[in-house]
Amino acid sequence: MKKPTLKHIISDGSWLLIDRGLKILVAIFLNAWIAREIGPAQYGKLAYGLSSLLILQTIVSFGFDGPTVLELSRRPERKNEVLSNVFVTRFTIALIFGVMLIAYAQYAIDSHPDETIAIIVAISVLIFPLETVDLWFQANNKNKNTVISKNVSVMALSIVKIYFISNECSLITLAILVSIEFATASLVLYSVYKFTERDTNFQPNIRTAIHQIKEALPYAISGLAIAAYMRLDHFLIIKYLDSTQLGYYSALTPIVTAFGTLAVVLNTIISPRLARLSVNSIEYCRRITIIFRAYLFIGLASSFTIYISSSFIITTLYGDTYATCIEILKIYALIALPMFLGSANQMLIVMERNGVLALIKTTLGATTSFLLGVILIPRYGLSGAAISALISQLIAAILINAVINKNVFLAQLGFQYRIKGQPPKKDIYQ
Questions:
Q1: What angle separates helix 243-274 from helix 326-333, to the nearest 10 degrees?
Q2: What is the DSSP string of 373-394?
Q3: Which helix (H) or strand (E) holds 241?
Q4: Residue pair 382/248 in contact by the 8 Å Cβ criterion
Q5: Model confidence pTM above 0.90
Q6: What residue ranges of the chain have pLDDT lower than 50?
Q7: CB 344, CB 269: distance < 8 Å
Q8: Alpha-carbon Rg for the chain in angstroms
Q9: In whole angstroms, what is the distance from residue 392 CA to residue 413 CA?
Q10: Which of 247, 253, 318, 381 has the maximal Cβ count within 10 Å?
Q11: Are 359 and 221 in contact (CB under 8 A)?
């Protein structure tokens, strides 16, 4: 297979940036409009459902993304085998949780009606395994296909949601539309893959699947820990406060996570080309140094921008009803920096296939988030939730490296990343 040129990568990266940029804008403005229209209490219930879906998607993903993109970048001839193994694993997990959701729904409808919203949104996880094909697009810098397919479904369903909300639809109807939106995006993406790729045979292999699962397991646990400490505060707010307070808090989430999304996009663009370099080469270390410095600058700029414009953002997008969120957003804004530096560190971990380190970092972050949340949220409310999220991000993304990997810690501060001299991990296909 012909390797993508730098021009191709830049062009493909531009498509991906446009895609995420459009999604970020739609998410911020559409969610702000929805929050104003349905109010904090109803918006909090919907946000609870979206948090549940995120956790389930993370479980179903099983940490395959990074290692699979890395493997497909280096050995594209194994596409069908690698993708088939990932799909079978993901679908099996999704099916198990789908059955559990349906079974729980029979109980929740009568005894816990608020959780019905979460179940309706989360059931779309059954279709999520089809997005496995996106890993092939990422590995070969074909993100244009993902951009077009997902934006078509997102824009179409956004228009439908606006229509229904304008006509004062029920919260259950809105939850159904959100679930359809996620499912449609997965179906359209898979259809584009089948249409654009000639060789799409289903070729699972038990031996290599076991190797893939073993390699992905630390990333799976790590990813779940990341999702937990990114959304754990939502569940604690529901427990210690109420859905109205969660509505206020969740209104801020699209603003700050927009920068986390940008960091993931940059990783997606950079990773395939970085994967073709030896982790012991001078060029690899030079590029890692540049990446850390760039992410440090972008993270600082993002945090500063949100912090000084917090009042304008809240009053313009959400109105006076959400004015209490201004001070919370100022705290939350500082999370952008560890988001970027943590994302750069995660890319480095995947390149060097050090899943155990990822597991240690994210487990520590999740534990810190939970403990601080239990202590601070009952006492300080939403400000406590924002502080616990910030501290846990700082510890997991940056501060822990001062203890377990000073080389990375110094690189995150802008210093030169140095060669460690460690041999690459064994090829799982040998």
A1: 20
A2: HHHHHHHHTHHHHHHHHHHHHH
A3: none
A4: yes
A5: no
A6: 1-2, 4-6, 8, 421-430
A7: no
A8: 21
A9: 18
A10: 247
A11: yes
